[in-house]
Design the sequence.
């Protein structure tokens, strides 16, 4: 089927078939956009020719340091040029990039380094203390440390490790990049929260990264030479593939280390930023910014927002300020955004502002690189009625779905059951096929765009000598979208205060994972003893 009667001599060969990889985008940009500004960060301003040379030096230095194809190279870096360079330089030597969340605590970083078996880690000087604590907790060989100070932000080197610029100096700017022989080769290993509390290693391939980077400009209505502000952490789904995408368009990557309203307004005004992505907390930050932090600008700034549906009130306030908001949705397992709330002017142009905002808060339809995104009953895999009321699970199928979970074939098989990736997110589908999330089946809390495992927090609280039972749910929060709210039953004869339990958790978890509210009460349970979290979510909404 689909073949000619005689296909003799019509085989694949190097002239007509090249494995897809986002590395090709920077190789192309070096030739046709060589003098255009590729990366801007304060006084650090590099053309595409210079950017390519620095990424080549990194790849060469890694190879000389003994990093072989298939080895894992980790980073613990904020949104600075070295993190962008790692997105090209690490795979350009055949290695696999593992970007680690800079906000994680030492125990989780240790687990990730052990599980991924990273051979080398690039670390921001400010993150050195937590990394050193993590190395002390590792059970396997510790990776080599390359320290990345940040003079633009006044972050000085410790003097204890080889510096990034010195490491680059050992590399060859003419290094011949190691391109994949097979586009299914792994490009990145990214760890995401799960219901077990331990993060799972999501393995992604060159093909998916290429197609995501190629498709998103269509969804974002991009033309040549965008100026993109890095608000989405580059450690989060590889910055939604946007660092790989920029060379495709000859765009400028404007690095933003500290996400503040002033920094964003300054970048829009001074660097001419045209696009950025971010969680709804970023929109709230801009809406509520004091006048002293605001700057005037002429361009309309296109924004992809994801992580939690933005409040319609926020959308109604921010768009008149010069921002056009598009809601997108995805997971680490889908390379970041995989759906878009494509605007239907013919249907929605006449909507009242509050109705327009409500429509824009939908997660939407499949992006171009996805084959199918829909809502089904997970038990039967039947399509739910598209009536905006019947709930089911969001299912994905397409080229931008992960290879699977690293060293976890059981979880991989479960996620891919019946030929679709099961997101675990509960949603409805409207008559126009647009998807809208209704709940989170896995009880993951999304706070400021970061995924938090409720089970991990519950396990931490249960380690307190006074706690008998603990259940953690999402509590709506105006600033962060959602925050963890803990419901606790104490052991008979024991006592604890809210402040005590919050402090106990903060000493063991990253700050963003710490419960912001603790409620002492008997937990609602089924006849079999299962805690009924849906009741707790209802209570948390009114606390």
Sequence:
């Amino acid at each position: 089927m689909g073949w000619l009667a005689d296909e003799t001599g019509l085989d694949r060969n190097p002239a007509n078939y090249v494995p897809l990889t986002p590395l090709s985008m920077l190789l192309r940009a070096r030739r046709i956009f060589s003098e255009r500004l590729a990366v801007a960060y304060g006084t650090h301003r590099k053309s595409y020719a210079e950017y390519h040379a620095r990424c080549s030096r990194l790849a060469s230095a890694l190879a000389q340091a003994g990093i072989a194809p298939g080895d894992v190279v980790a980073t613990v870096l904020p949104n600075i040029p070295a993190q962008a360079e790692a997105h090209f330089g690490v795979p350009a030597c055949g290695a696999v990039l593992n970007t680690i969340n800079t906000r994680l605590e030492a125990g989780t970083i240790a687990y990730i380094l052990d599980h991924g078996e990273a051979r080398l880690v690039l670390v921001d000087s400010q993150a050195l203390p937590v990394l050193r604590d993590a190395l002390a907790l590792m059970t396997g060989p510790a990776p080599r440390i390359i320290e990345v100070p940040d003079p633009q932000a006044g972050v000085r080197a410790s003097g204890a490790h080889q510096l990034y610029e010195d490491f680059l100096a050992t590399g060859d700017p003419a290094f011949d990049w190691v391109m994949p022989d097979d586009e299914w080769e792994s490009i990145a290993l990214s760890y995401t929260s799960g219901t077990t509390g331990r993060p799972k290693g999501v393995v992604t391939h060159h093909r998916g990264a290429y197609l995501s980077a190629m498709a998103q400009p269509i969804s974002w209505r991009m033309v040549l030479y965008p100026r993109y502000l890095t608000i989405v952490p580059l450690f989060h789904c590889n910055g939604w593939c946007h660092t790989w995408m920029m060379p495709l368009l000859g765009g400028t990557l404007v690095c933003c280390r500290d996400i503040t309203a002033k920094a964003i307004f300054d970048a829009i005004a001074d660097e001419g930023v045209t696009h950025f992505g971010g969680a709804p907390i970023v929109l709230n930050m801009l809406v509520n910014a004091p006048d002293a932090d605001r700057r005037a600008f002429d361009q309309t700034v296109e924004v992809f927002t994801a992580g939690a549906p933005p409040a319609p009130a926020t959308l109604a306030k921010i768009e008149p300020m010069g921002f056009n908001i598009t809601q997108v949705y995805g997971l680490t397992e889908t390379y970041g955004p995989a759906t878009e709330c494509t605007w239907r002017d013919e249907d929605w142009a006449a909507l009242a502002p509050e109705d327009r905002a409500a429509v824009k808060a939908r997660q939407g339809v499949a992006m171009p690189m996805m084959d199918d995104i829909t809502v089904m009953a997970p038990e039967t895999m039947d399509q739910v009625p598209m009536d905006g009321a019947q709930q089911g699970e969001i299912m994905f199928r397409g080229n931008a779905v992960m290879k699977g979970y690293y060293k976890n074939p059981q979880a991989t098989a479960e996620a891919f059951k019946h030929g679709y990736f099961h997101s675990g997110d509960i949603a409805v589908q409207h008559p126009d096929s647009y998807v809208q999330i209704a709940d989170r089946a896995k009880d993951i809390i999304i706070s400021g765009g970061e995924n938090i495992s409720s089970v991990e927090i519950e396990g931490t609280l249960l380690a307190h000598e006074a706690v008998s039972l603990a259940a953690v749910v999402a509590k709506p929060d105006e600033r962060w979208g959602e925050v963890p709210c803990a419901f606790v039953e104490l052991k008979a004869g024991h006592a604890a205060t809210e402040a005590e339990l919050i402090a106990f958790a903060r000493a063991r978890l990253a700050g963003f994972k710490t419960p912001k509210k603790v409620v002492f009460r008997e937990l609602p349970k089924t006849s079999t003893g299962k805690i009924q979290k849906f009741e707790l979510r209802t209570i948390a909404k009114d606390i």
Notes: The chain has 18 helices and 27 strands.
